[in-house]
């Protein structure tokens, strides 16, 4: 109980007054007075004075209690409702990681290396992809060309052995649609693609050079063929 509650209870008991009688005289409920006496109710100064005056103890109150003491009838800490303990939230179970397949791991590496390496397709004479090789990208290009325009051509026979290109060798081709004198170029000629060394003849005519052991040549008009690109590198098959 509080000091004020003790005083009210003491005086009420001494005067043999019931709680109901005092409450009625003070204009408060019996439950309200009970809480004050037991120290469970915060009471304002004017209300405290009214109760003490009703009990005939106002003079004593003025002398023995300050207004702050009268107002502080209870320990607020004892009245503050304690928050109900909250059940600890169960941590969400992390989904079990699925092991990555070899194809997924390869894809991740390709994505990470896409700015420095490029898978270049290997095309056969029928222009069907039969494989690919990784090549480095420098300044955003491969051999000076856009990476997605570069291809490997798989030499289908020994028709260019005289130029040191044999069957199974990989020839790196970069786009080039205009004839270059002395260059080995990938030519779309008739129904197939082949490698030929180009010689300019004038009058829009070209000499297509090839040869297994001896050098041979064929003259064509430039409109009869399609130049796909020029050879810039050869990787021999061992």
What tags apply to this protein structure?
single chain; 434 Repressor (Amino-terminal Domain); Umud Fragment, subunit A; 2 domains; nine-stranded mixed β-sheet; 8 helices
Using the CA coordinates, give the radius of gyration.
51 Å
Q: Determine the mean pLDDT.
A: 80
Helix/sheet category: alpha+beta
Q: Would you count the extended β strands for me?
A: 9
Count of helix runs: 8
Q: Regarding CATH, which class of the largest domain?
A: Mainly Beta
Walk me through the structure.
The chain is α+β, with helices and mostly antiparallel strands and 238 residues long. The chain has two domains: 3-79, 434 Repressor (Amino-terminal Domain), CATH 1.10.260; 116-235, Umud Fragment, subunit A (Ribbon). Helix content is 28%, strand content 27%. It is built from eight helices and nine strands. It has a nine-stranded mixed beta sheet, with no helix packed on it. α2 packs across α3 (30-37). The longest helix has 12 residues, at 3-14. The termini are far apart.
């Amino acid at each position: 109980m509080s000091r004020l509650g003790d005083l009210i209870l003491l005086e009420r008991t001494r005067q043999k007054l019931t709680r109901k009688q005092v409450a009625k005289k003070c204009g408060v409920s019996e439950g309200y007075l009970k809480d004050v006496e037991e120290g469970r109710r915060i009471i304002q100064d004017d209300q405290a004075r009214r109760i003490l005056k009703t009990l005939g103890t106002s003079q004593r109150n003025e002398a023995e209690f300050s207004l702050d003491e009268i107002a502080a009838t209870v320990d607020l800490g004892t009245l503050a409702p304690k928050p109900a303990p909250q059940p600890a939230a169960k941590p969400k179970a992390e989904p079990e990681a699925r092991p990555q397949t070899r194809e997924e791991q390869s894809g991740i590496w390709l994505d990470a290396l896409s700015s420095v390496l490029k898978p270049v397709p290997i095309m056969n004479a029928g222009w069907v992809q039969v494989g690919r090789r990784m090549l480095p990208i420098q300044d955003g290009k491969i051999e000076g060309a856009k990476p997605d325009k570069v291809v490997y051509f798989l030499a289908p026979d020994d028709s260019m052995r005289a130029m040191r290109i044999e069957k199974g060798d990989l020839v790196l081709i970069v786009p080039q649609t205009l004839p270059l004198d002395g260059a080995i170029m990938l030519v779309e000629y008739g129904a197939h693609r082949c490698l030929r060394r180009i010689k300019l003849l004038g009058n829009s005519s070209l000499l297509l050079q090839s040869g297994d052991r001896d050098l041979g040549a064929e003259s064509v008009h430039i409109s009869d063929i399609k130049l796909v690109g020029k050879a810039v590198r050869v990787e021999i098959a061992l």
